Amino acid sequence: MRMRRMRRNQPLRDLVRETSLEPGDLIYPLFICPGKGIRNPISSMPGVFNLSVDEAVREAEEAAQLGIGGLLLFGLPETKDEQGTGAWEENGIVQQALRTLKQSPASKKLVLIADVCLCEYTSHGHCGAVTKSGDEFDVDNDPTLELLARTAVSQAKAGADVVAPSDMMDGRVSAIRKALDAAGLKQTPILSYASKFASAFYGPFREAADSAPQFGDRRSYQMDGANLREAMREIDLDIEEGADMILMKPAMPYLDVVRAARERVDVPIGAYQVSGEYSMLHAAFEKGWLDHDRAMLESLLGIRRAGADFIVTYFAKDAAKLLG
Known about the structure:
Layout: H1 10-15, E1 26-32, E2 39-41, E3 49-51, H2 53-66, E4 70-75, H3 93-102, E5 111-116, E6 130-133, E7 136-139, H4 141-158, E8 162-165, H5 172-182, E9 191-196, H6 203-208, H7 228-241, E10 245-249, H8 255-264, E11 269-273, H9 275-287, H10 292-306, E12 310-313, H11 316-323
Parallel strand pairs: 1-3, 1-4, 1-12, 4-5, 5-8, 9-10, 10-11, 11-12
Antiparallel strand pairs: 2-3, 6-7
């Protein structure tokens, strides 16, 4: 047996390729901010911007032309408060974007996914309602569920095809499912960030979304990166509560979690190639240490090979241009 026989030329390699990567496998995150004609670069994420709604529509039109599967929307509100009320306001920034995008022909080719969390909207930067005493604080789980459910319903009414809770509160999927059903939104799927780890790789995102915690950290609700078995329990619970799809976050340092989830469950699985993964690759590109196109596609193919059906990535447009 000579294994190299099937590597001899490109047509043979294409014929026996086990894992495919296509533009439709990619989800492109967008950060929506108030205003018009705004396209503010994010210093730690080359090629990524805070976008006003009109600029987001332009991005959506390009994404649709490239065959990208969908968009994941994050919001930067004009004002913040303790409860994060901007997350569920009828005229909140993501709700504005969803209604406008739904009027664009591009929306017929894209899945519009709304991130359900409060960290971008709270003055303290945590993902839920906070009780604080001196230097001690706690994100109060059960009162937060009502706020998350209100947010999901508001986003779905504004036009979200999918709502994606990323907060890691216990019971959030069940609360959101009940609220959606009660509002007559039984057909709205839930994409749960089922295993979201407390990771150092989120750093650039916090600049992009202006969501850094003002005190403490998120380790009491985001997962310990050492725990694979616990991640499987989180996944089981979210599916039991009604999650239609699940998302792993981050991707690259947790490919074993993606693989274990793929072998365990039969719902669609996504993985989020997070801001730190994107930024460190770009740093290597700028130094000339890595080839941009090859390293980008290899990083995405590895996530697909691990078992992800789709990938949330800031490389979506660049990768789609090559794959198309």
